[in-house]
Specification:
The protein is mainly alpha-helical. Helices cover 61% and strands 0% of the residues. It has a domain of 30 residues. Helix 2 packs across helix 4. The protein is elongated and about 40 Å long. It starts with 6 loop residues before the first helix and ends with a helix.
Length: 56
């Protein structure tokens, strides 16, 4: 039997306490938001200015 990791739950609580956590972030919403601005997925994923423009 494989023991389940509780790290996910810990990360959630650390986030609630505004602690710095080291997890990857995938700008999934950015790609969809970029379509409204007329940007392609490649543009959003390679240009942080365009990504922030779309997410704001």
């Amino acid at each position: 039997m494989v023991k389940k990791s509780t790290r996910g739950k810990e990360l959630i609580f650390e986030t609630f306490r505004y602690e710095n956590i080291d997890v990857p972030w995938v700008p999934f919403a950015g790609i969809h938001a970029g379509r409204f601005k007329g940007y392609t997925a490649s543009e959003i994923l390679q240009d942080k200015t365009k990504l922030m423009e779309c997410l704001v």
